[in-house]
Design goal:
- The protein is an all-alpha fold.
- It contains 13 helices and 4 strands.
- The chain has a two-stranded antiparallel sheet with strand order 1-4. The chain has a two-stranded antiparallel ribbon with strand order 2-3.
Length: about 325
């Protein structure tokens, strides 16, 4: 069974690579500006910002959970980071405080879900509403601007004509993907998502692991907010709405299951690349950006239906074999 699961994930990744190549070829024929260096630099910056949060969402989905408060955590972290920087605080200190704020929100989510037993959807929905409400109340919905060189350097620095933050993200994904596949501590995430009861019987502290994963999720969402504030040269409290949906869809089309227990970070990353290229190409073709949200929903329901049919077929085959 393990061999089949790995093979299906590899097939998913291969299909996504082919689709990405086809999309790039198609959009380059429609609009010559698609393959320009300037467009790809912009695309890479935006992708990387959401990419860090994708890592946390991938962890949670593999473990059988999810977090819909991602966008709100990004907003409050971006606002906190920008506000502290505007008052003259040292940039590294601003980053640390913003990350700690995100980790606190993630810890709250984890404790409420694991210790009290509240459903992850209800918990993170409440957190999403509370956090977004707080940042909107404090800011009155008004954006704030900050454009000092130190503030902008986080997202605007380039290495080898590529955004430095993108290069860091690629190295980060390679390392984390390897650990998910090979390191026993990370493999526990799959065991918890596949069968939590069996994982507990085997000695895994599932509740502690879930709390850690929610903290990681919120910390990486906070990092995404910080990088976004640096790129936008300020904070927009109303921004990032719908980011959590995009991340979940990217993970699911990349091979993760909403039931947990399967998926790879590499596949999820390919899923996000696919969505970013699709979004960018649609914009360059002049298609209304609001259509993209509908496409996300269609992708999600389509992949879930395919996974459901595949699971039913597999279970039917296993039943026949047992008979």
């Amino acid at each position: 069974m393990r061999y089949k699961a790995r093979s299906s994930v590899n097939i998913t990744e291969l299909v996504l690579v082919i689709l990405i190549v086809v999309l790039c070829a198609a959009f380059s024929q429609v609009n010559e500006g698609f393959l320009t260096l300037a467009n790809f630099r912009s695309l890479l910056k935006g992708f990387t910002i959401e990419g860090f949060a994708l890592v946390g969402m991938c962890f949670l989905l593999i473990s059988g959970a999810f977090d819909i408060s991602v966008a709100s955590v990004m907003a409050v972290s971006a606002y906190t980071f920008t506000s502290l920087a505007m008052t003259g605080w040292n940039i590294p200190v601003c980053i640390i405080i913003s990350l700690l704020l995100g980790m606190g929100i993630g810890g709250f989510n984890g404790v409420v879900i694991t210790k009290i037993g509240v459903n992850p959807f209800i918990t993170t929905l409440a957190t999403m509403t509370i956090v977004r409400g707080l940042v909107l109340a404090i800011s009155q919905g008004n954006p704030i601007r900050m454009s000092t060189p130190a503030f902008k350097s986080l997202s605007w620095t380039e290495w080898f004509d590529l955004p430095a933050v993108f290069i860091v993200f690629v190295v980060f994904v390679i390392i984390v993907d390897f650990m998910l596949r090979r390191i026993s501590w990370f493999r526990q995430i799959y065991f918890i998502g596949g069968d939590e009861y069996s994982a507990i019987l085997s000695g895994i502290d599932a509740k502690k692991m879930r709390i850690i994963l929610f903290i990681i999720m919120a910390m990486l969402a906070a990092l995404s907010g910080i990088l976004s504030a640096s790129r936008l040269e300020g904070s927009v409290p109303t921004a990032y709405v719908g980011v959590e949906m995009k991340l979940i869809v990217a993970c699911v089309i990349g091979g993760c299951s909403l039931n947990g227990g399967q998926g790879t970070l590499f596949g999820a990353t390919l899923g996000l690349i696919f969505l970013f290229i699709l979004d960018n190409g649609m914009v360059m073709m002049g298609i209304d950006i609001y259509w993209f949200q509908g496409i996300l929903g269609a992708f999600l329901i389509g992949v879930v239906l395919l996974n459901t049919m595949f699971s039913k077929g597999k279970n039917r085959g296993n039943t026949l074999e047992n008979q």
